[in-house]
Specification:
Distance between the termini: 35 Å
Number of helices: 7
Structural class: alpha/beta
CATH class: Alpha Beta
Radius of gyration: 15 Å
Strand content: 15-25%
CATH superfamily: Spore Coat Polysaccharide Biosynthesis Protein SpsA, Chain A
Number of strands: 10
Largest sheet: 8 strands, mixed
CATH topology: Spore Coat Polysaccharide Biosynthesis Protein SpsA, Chain A
Helix content: 25-40%
CATH architecture: Alpha-Beta Complex
Number of domains: 1
């Protein structure tokens, strides 16, 4: 069983407005990212909300997701990971950490990472594009304790650094794993691409 935690609690400081609600395709950045995950082989999706949670909740409520609230979102990404972990199903074998501002990552890419996780004996699966690591990252459930111990504005990078021998890197033929939308310039450039 794979539990995906979608981190969507941030303040979009570089954007200057809540980027997850910006139009994208026929919906919003957040909804597209959620739908890509829901159409993949994940078994549950936990969406972590914090900043402007009520506005985001309106977009999330109709979808098959669990919602975790992170009132401490200003203290950084680690608090969102911990909030998401608090509602992960007890049967989960692995945790996928995904970012709310990556709507270009397709279900096909997500499925490839899940398949690779189950076909290797490594505990951490990281996608790469042209040698550069991206998201989402899968951690075996044995790393739950270390994830719960994270502090500040960090994701799983510290755990990845501490366990180099337990990593498998999966080359992906799509730059989507490294493409997030941080600024309005990013948004206009990326949303107008073919």
């Amino acid at each position: 069983m794979i539990s995906a935690i979608l981190l969507a609690a941030g303040q979009s400081k570089r954007m200057g407005r809540l980027k997850l609600l910006l139009p994208f395709g026929g919906s919003t950045i957040l909804e597209q990212t959620i739908d890509n995950l829901l159409h993949s082989k994940i078994d549950e999706l936990i969406v972590v909300l914090g900043y402007q949670a009520q506005e985001l909740m309106e977009k999330v409520a109709s979808r098959r997701v669990k919602v975790a609230m992170n009132p401490a979102y200003k203290q950084g990404m680690s608090t969102s990971i911990i909030a998401g972990l608090s509602v992960v199903d007890d049967k989960a074998q692995a945790l996928m950490l995904a970012l709310g501002d990556q709507p270009f990552i397709s279900s096909r890419v997500i499925d490839r990472l899940i398949d690779e996780f189950f076909s290797h004996n490594k505990g951490i699966v990281i996608p790469t594009y042209q040698g550069s690591r991206g998201h989402p990252v899968i951690f075996a459930i044995k790393y739950k304790g270390e994830l719960l111990g994270l502090k500040g504005d960090v994701g799983g990078r510290q755990i990845i650094k501490e366990h180099p021998d337990d990593i498998v890197e999966i080359p992906i033929d799509s730059e989507s794993i490294n493409t997030d939308i941080d600024t309005l310039t990013d948004y206009y450039r990326l949303s107008n691409r073919p």
